[in-house]
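Sequence design from tokenized structure. All designs in this work follow the same two-part layout: the structure record, then the generated sequence. An example of the structure record is given first.
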């Protein structure tokens, strides 16, 4: 890990030094070249694939801009999601097919190996948001180099945040020299992110990993492991976001915040407004609202929430447990919305007292923490872990 961090730090320093020496009109091109070099570490096949995807999205953006929004966005989303599905889920689906074939006594088959390009989930979402925003009239179509600079911006490439083209592109085109305040804040965020990831996240993982051995861990220690993993995943995700935001700031580019004390929230809806905020905004605006949002009654709103959060779960990884995690949160959001509306209808919606706020926070925190078991473990192992948390150990699901 240390040599990876050192190598990346040297890469950032080199890119920054050249960036500072170049005139403003060339800085955006230099950042694109640096991002291409960073992405090329994955191999030339990944570079060819992303180049083809960028060309596809750029051409469809032109089609959308010329008055064919449904066709352009439809083709774009279908093609991008197909690539995402092959990249992230082909091995999982083929593995299930192989297991089914073995169960039926049929000849098993070997699946082709596919290595998903670096940051595939994130740059697919950036491409979709670009096409959607062009269709909504929020932005104008951009040239292929500007589009590539947005999609492949290397600080946010592996794990976000998912910035919008309309917020990112003007800053990249301007190529403004970073101020002293940019450097001060940027270096501080990078240092905070490194501390979160390399110290806090790794330390809590050493405790949280006991969830993988639920049947061999005493119940009290298993609960401690649950809360440790809850902290691990926050410091891991938010630590990378801090570093991405900080590195971007070193180049004079401000990108959106991604985490804002999510574990301090007192209801599940507020948690999602402050957890991985760029992803939540994407899901809300480009999935939930197009499905109809809450405009057609509570039943439809609940269905739309389950669909949106189920897709959110599958976006995080392949496996039934990711889908279950997404649906778990979708159910939580739906129940909370029904409860809130019921309180409003009967005049029971009033400011919470201190003890009720504390109780709401404790309930929300434990709801989220228990959900992370499904995020970490395959579905059957997660069920065993839940029983172990109740003191029932040794139950295996087949």
């Amino acid at each position: 890990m240390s040599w990876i961090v050192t190598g990346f730090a040297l890469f950032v320093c080199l890119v920054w030094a050249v960036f500072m020496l170049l005139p403003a009109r060339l800085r955006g091109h230099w950042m694109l070249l640096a991002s291409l070099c960073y992405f090329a570490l994955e191999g030339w096949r990944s570079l060819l694939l992303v180049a083809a995807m960028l060309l596809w999205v750029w051409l469809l953006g032109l089609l959308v801009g010329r008055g064919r929004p449904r066709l352009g966005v439809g083709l774009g989303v279908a093609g991008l999601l197909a690539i995402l599905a092959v990249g992230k889920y082909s091995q999982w689906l083929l593995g299930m097919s192989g297991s089914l074939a073995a169960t039926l006594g049929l000849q098993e088959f070997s699946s082709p190996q596919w290595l998903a390009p670096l940051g595939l989930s994130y740059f697919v979402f950036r491409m979709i948001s670009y096409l959607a925003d062009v269709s909504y009239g929020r932005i104008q179509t951009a040239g292929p180099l500007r589009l590539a600079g947005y999609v492949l911006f290397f600080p946010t490439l592996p794990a976000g945040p998912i910035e919008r083209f309309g917020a990112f592109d003007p800053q990249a085109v301007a190529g403004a020299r970073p101020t002293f305040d940019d450097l001060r804040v940027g270096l501080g965020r990078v240092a905070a992110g490194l501390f979160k990831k390399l110290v806090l996240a790794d330390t809590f993982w050493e405790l949280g990993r006991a969830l993988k051995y639920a049947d061999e861990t005493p119940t009290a220690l298993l609960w401690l492991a649950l809360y440790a993993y809850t902290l691990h995943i926050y410091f891991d995700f938010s630590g990378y976001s801090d570093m991405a935001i900080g590195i971007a700031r070193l180049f004079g580019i401000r990108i959106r915040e991604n985490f804002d004390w999510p574990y301090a929230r007192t209801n599940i809806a507020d948690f999602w407004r402050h957890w991985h905020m760029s992803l939540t905004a994407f899901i809300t605006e480009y999935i939930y609202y197009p499905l109809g949002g809450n405009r057609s009654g509570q039943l439809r709103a609940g269905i739309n929430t389950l669909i949106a959060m189920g897709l959110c779960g599958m976006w995080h990884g392949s496996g039934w447990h990711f889908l279950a995690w997404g649906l778990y949160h979708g159910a939580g959001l739906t129940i909370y919305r029904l409860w809130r509306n019921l309180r409003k209808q009967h005049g029971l919606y009033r400011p919470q007292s201190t003890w009720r706020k504390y109780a709401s926070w404790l309930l929300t925190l434990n709801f989220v923490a228990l959900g992370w078991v499904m995020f970490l473990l395959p579905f059957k192992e997660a069920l065993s872990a839940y029983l172990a948390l109740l003191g029932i150990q040794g139950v295996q699901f087949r």
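Residues 69-103 form the longest helix (35 residues). We note this feature because it recurs in several other targets discussed in the main text.
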